Amino acid sequence: MTRILVVDDRPENIELLEAILQSAAYDVSSAVDGEHGLQRAESILPDLIISDILMPNVDGFQFCHMVRKNPALTDVPFIFLTGAYVSADDEKFAFELGANRFIRRPFQADELLESVREVLESNPNTSLKMPADLDEDAYVKQHMGRLTQTLEDKVVELEQVTEDNTKLLHDAQSQEAKLQQSLDELQATQAYLVQSERLSAVGQLVAGVAHELNNPLAIILGYSQLILRMPEASTRMTECLKKLEDAAQRCQNIVHHLTIFAQKNKVEKKPLNINDVVRSVVDIRKDQFDVDGISIDITLDPRLLVVYADYQQLQQVFLSLVNNAQEALLGKSESDRAIELKTRLVEQKVFIDFVDNGVGLKEELLPNLFEPFFTTKDFGQGIGLGLSVCYGIIKGHDGDITATGNQSGGATFTIELPLHRVGKEEPPKADGPKDTTEMEQVNQRILVIDDEAGILDILSSSLEQAGYSVDTAMRAVDGLLALQNGKYDLILMDIRLPDSDGGTLFHKVKAMDPEVADRVIFITGDTVSTETLAFIEETGNIYIAKPFDIESVRQLVARRLDSGD
Fold it and tell me: Is 58 buried (19+), middle (13-18) or exposed (0-12) by CB count in 10 A?
């Protein structure tokens, strides 16, 4: 088999030549420069050598010169294959050294194989060798001349390229400001549109999920509370049911806070306790913190920290900061992940601190941290709007937000909001539990309309325990029929029924009995829909959100009946 030696310092060139030559059934060996090429040639005595010119240590010209001076290799055909030296003088010097062919890159595989075949089939006695008049001094002189000329050509070429690039750069810089401004505006518009669509989609998803969850949660919570109040419940049963009730109430809080977050209402500022917002954020994220092994330390100022703010917007800011802290902790071991939330009052200012022991903040990043589109996340993981949106919301509340790096590692984000003066009146307190015997009523009739059999059973059983007479209906048509056949003092009515919407049913009830229509209490699991809330507000009636506490329902029914309206 014909042996061919390929000498080239680029592995990809060797790989390509090996593939082409081996496809024609040649036995191919390789070397990475002239020095190793000569050693390999002396070892295998190839039938043909193919060599690059520009190589480290010993270049192709030197390699060819040494081959022709070696008695064992002087008759071996030699082909130069190069893309670096392409001048006519280079080619002439190659033939003077004794090369048989001079092939320039790029080349076609068929052309290369044809040249190889022709060189191999030529009479070895006619192979080109180094001319007798090219002595060692002449070789060295010409070799150095070719290298020097090549370097000079490259310098001239680079100078021209540099000059052209400088001109192009100057032209580009003259347009850079306008292009950057246009790009920033386009990115800002696109990012806000994307963010808006995402929030809209999330809001719709949360609204649907919340409504579907509220019904089974109401059943779980209701039955738990109902059985807890049964005298035949054992101690162990009571313990288990209490745990079930606590878990259901926790789910209730999470769904409630998510629905508030998902509502797309206009900004509504009102007095609110900042500690309530902090607790809501912890409720929403607690499960994920447990999964990620993050400990949460909450230190809330016991004083009443009332601010005049939009609940949804503050919750959005707090969630964003907590999520950022959580991401900063994922690079640490689970045994050392901690977030601390603190509220405090200093000189009529409410401060909320979000402290983590994560990767921390570099000093040079702090001046740009709240700028739009500034992000330290990898490409595709964030668009840099979160903190800028937080900054805008807090400034819109006449507050301030700052960030600092902690000496022990991690970061602290601090929000400052003005304290809202509520006057001398104490905020309304929730009614404490009442003895259900005080609410027992005789001969007061209540109609409950809901398409969930479990909820009907819970409400009817609970209200009957309180002494009311209760009828139930799972469809609007059955509820209207019951109202037509009897007189009721109060109606508990689900807004979404399979055969009617709340508005239609309410207006029919009002047409049949205006007095009881004023004492309709709506039941709904859809507290996200602006249409639902607008309808309830239009009627002037009150509503119960699913899932509900049955003791609270009893108290609400009693107050509504006792009001005499």
Answer: middle
What's the residue count for the chain? 565
Q: How many CB atoms lie within 10 A of CB 404?
A: 14
**Higher-confidence position of 226 and 319:** 319
Residue 107 to residue 109: CA distance in whole angstroms: 7
Residue type, 425: E
Residue 191 has pLDDT above 70, yes or no: no
Residue pair 67/49 in contact (Cβ under 8 Å)? The answer is yes
Q: How many whole angstroms separate alpha carbon 451 and alpha carbon 476? A: 9
- Distance in angstroms (rounded) separating the CA atoms of residues 284 and 297: 15
CB atoms within 10 A of CB 111: 10
Token reading at 408: 């022990």
Q: How far is CA 475 from CA 84, 453, 458, 503, 548, in A?
A: 88, 11, 17, 14, 21
Are the C-beta atoms of residues 449 and 505 closer than 8 Å to each other? yes
Q: Coil, strand, or helix at residue 300?
A: coil
The terminus-to-terminus CA distance of the chain in angstroms comes to 110
DSSP string for 222-289 = HHHHHHHT-TT--HHHHHHHHHHHHHHHHHHHHHHHHHHHH--PPP-EEEEEHHHHHHHHHHHHHHHH
pLDDT in tens, 47-105: 999 999 888 888 888 899 999 989 999 999 999 998 765 677 778 888 888 899 999 88
C-alpha 513/C-alpha 314 separation (Å) is 44
Strand, helix or coil for residue 448: strand
The structure tokens 């006519």 sit at 88
Give the CA distances from residue 103 to residues 83, 112, 126, 221, 490, in Å, rounded to whole numbers and listed in that order. 9, 8, 20, 86, 101
Domain annotation for the chain: domains and CATH numbers: 3-134 (3.40.50.2300), 267-418 (3.30.565.10), 437-563 (3.40.50.2300)
Nearest to residue 66, comparing CAs of 162, 136, 137, 17? Answer: 136
Question: What CA–CA distance (Å, rounded) separates 64 from 3?
Answer: 18
* Mean pLDDT (whole number) for 395-401: 88
